[in-house]
Design a protein that fits this description.
This protein is an alpha/beta fold. It contains ten helices and five strands; from the N terminus they run βαβααβαααααβαβα. The chain is globular.
């Protein structure tokens, strides 16, 4: 599978590593009266922007605006409505919040036709049905200055170190140990794809991909170049996303629906699972109903 290349890499540098823990759908020792329930919906990007690690070929894309998929999305929305979310969080950066608010308000007034992306196809529909005034943009690109030596490499595109790092990204995902699940949206539909993506075992296996290939890249023997790159590019990014969600004022009576690319769940679910502020519910308990 083709992996992420040049343009977005410099934007993904900061963060932390952690160990997986806990069991989902329980309170981790905290009572439900003091925690806010969270449902994380891991998705493929409905508009196929090809800005992520995995690049999708044209022949492997679907048009979610076609009648058959629109009907299926309506069914998915109906299933998620059983969660009765009071807060909807989407994969857009906070700088996009004003534009998101404007589009959503136009949609509420009947003056906007939903685009292909999942934030609108699922997020807007659910928020409207729940009578919510807005959706929250919480994505981050993971900028940081923890590792200036990594920034120096990315800023020197003529160097051998830069070329070696880019090659490591291009080779990412070719390890025989890498986990690749077969997409189901073309053969079995969007719902089957989402159930597969939100399967706890698949999420766990997907996390292992971030500990191979680029993670193990060394410019010189026994340095931590790849570890530092991956720390900012992925781990730190998701910690920042989680912090943005923490910034949303909620109470234990709220229920948060998080709509994000499924790869993010291998970290976000861990954070929600271990946090004393939240109770992570099992997404497939709703998708399979």
């Amino acid at each position: 599978m083709k992996r992420l290349v040049l343009v977005l890499i410099p934007a993904l540098i900061c963060g932390v590593i952690f160990i997986r823990c806990g069991s989902r759908g329980v309170t981790n020792g905290y009572t439900n009266s003091t925690t806010t329930e969270v449902l994380t919906l891991g998705v493929f990007h409905f508009n196929f922007p090809n800005l992520d690690v995995v690049q999708i070929a044209e022949e492997d894309k679907i048009d979610v605006l076609s009648p058959e998929y629109q009907k299926e999305i309506e069914l998915i929305v109906k299933k998620l409505m059983l969660f009765q979310p009071t807060v909807v969080v989407v994969e857009s950066e906070p700088d996009y919040q004003n534009e998101m608010d404007s589009l959503y308000n136009d949609y509420l007034l009947g003056n906007y036709t939903l685009g292909r992306n999942e934030s609108e196809q699922i997020g807007f529909r659910i928020a409207k049905k729940m009578g919510l005034k807005k959706l929250y943009c919480v994505d981050e690109l993971g900028f940081g200055s923890h590792y200036p030596h990594i920034i120096d490499i990315f800023c020197n595109e003529e160097s051998e170190e830069y070329a070696a790092l880019i090659k490591a990204f291009e080779d990412d995902g070719i390890s025989p140990l890498s986990f690749h699940k077969k997409s189901k949206y073309m053969t079995e539909g969007i719902l089957a794809e989402l159930i597969q993506s939100n399967d706890e075992e698949n999420i766990k296996k997907d996390f292992g991909n971030y500990l191979l290939d680029i993670f193990k890249h060394e410019l010189v023997p026994y340095d931590f170049t790849g570890v530092d790159v991956q720390t900012g590019r992925w781990f730190g990014r998701n910690l920042r996303i989680f912090r943005n969600i923490q910034r949303i004022e909620t109470t234990p009576s709220d229920r948060i629906l998080v709509i994000f690319g499924s790869a993010h769940l291998n970290i976000l679910n861990y954070l929600f699972d271990c946090s004393p502020e939240y109770t992570l519910v099992r997404t497939n308990d709703f998708l399979k109903k």
